[in-house]
Amino acid sequence: MSNRLNHTFIALTATALMTGSVLAQDRSDWPENFTVGTASQGGTYFAYGSGWANFIAENLGVSGGAEITGGPVQNMALVHTGDLGFGLVTMGPAREAADGNSPLMPGMKMDNVCAMFPMYQTPFSITVLADSGITSISDIPDGARIGFGPAGSTSDSYFPRMMDTLGVEYERRNGSWSDLGGQLQDGLIDVVAFAAGIPIPAVSQLEVQSSINIIEFNDQELQAVTDAFPVSPFSIPESTYQSLSDDSQAVSMWNFATANCELPESFVYEITRLTMENNDKMVSIHKAARTSVPENYVNNTVLPWHPGAARWFTENGYAIEPDMIK
C-alpha cells in the first residue's frame, strides 16, 4: 500500500459509479476488496457496519464486507496495522490507543488510524428482567453477575469502571450481546450493561421475549460518571423501546468510522461522499444513522482526518484545521 496519496482525476463523459458521479476516479491504486471491523453479533456495530459495507460495495463495485471483532479497542489495532482497512470506534478507546494506552498494545501509539465520518452516540444503559425487582442502579445487589459485552469492547472498557465509581460490587462476565441477552433470560446473569447505538438489536429482541426494565442514571449518578469519564449526558427516547414509559437518562460517547491512513485518497473520498450524501439509505440500514450527518464531524477531536475524507468535508463547507489532516 503506497504512502503517497493519489490526487489524479480522469474526466469521463459517462458515469462510472451507480451513484451518478460525473467524475470517475483513477482506480489503479484502489484495493480489490475491503473489510470493516465491527463488534459482536447482536450489537449495533455489526448491524450498522454490515449494512454500510454492503452499501459501499454495491455502489463502488468493490468487494467488501464486515468482520466480527472485539469492538473498538481491537478495531483500532487492526486498522493501525493494516489488517483491516476500516473500523468502527468510540472516541474513548480511540484516544487511549492514539496516546499509546491501548490494553492490546501498551506503549504503541496507534497513529495510522484516520477519522472518516461521524456515526452516532453510544448510550450506556442497563437492562434487567422485570421480575428481578431491580429498578435503579442502587438496587443492584452486591455480587450481581453483570454482563459487560465482549472483552475489550467500549462497554467492557468503561462500564466496569463506572460501576466502581457508583459503588456497585459485581461479578464481571463477558460475551456477545446476543449471548448475554440469552444468559439474562435464562437467569445465568443478573444485569446486562449495554454500550451500543440505539435501538440495540439484543434489547429489542429481549423485550419481545421477556418483560424487562431499562435502568436509568439518577442525577447524582449522572454527575459522578460524567465527571470521571469521557461521556456526556444522553436521553434515550421513550419511542426507542416498548419497555420505556418515558425518556431514560443515560450517558453516551461518540462513534466514528475510521480508515487506515494509507488507503488511497480517492477511494476514501468516494466512500465518504456516498455515506454523507445518502443519509436516508444509512437510516434504512440502522436507525442510529440519523446522526451520521456531516454536521457532527465536530465531535472528532481525537484522530487525524484521512485526506480523502477531509477533502469531501472541506469541499462541502466544513472547516477542518490543516494540522488535523494526516
From TrEMBL:
Keyword entries, A-Z: Receptor, Signal
Signal peptide range in chain numbering: 1-24
Source organism, top-level taxon: Bacteria
InterPro entries: TRAP_TAXI
Entry keyword annotation includes Ligase: no
This protein's name: TRAP transporter solute receptor, TAXI family protein
Species, as recorded: Marinobacter lipolyticus SM19
Lineage: Bacteria, Pseudomonadati, Pseudomonadota, Gammaproteobacteria, Pseudomonadales
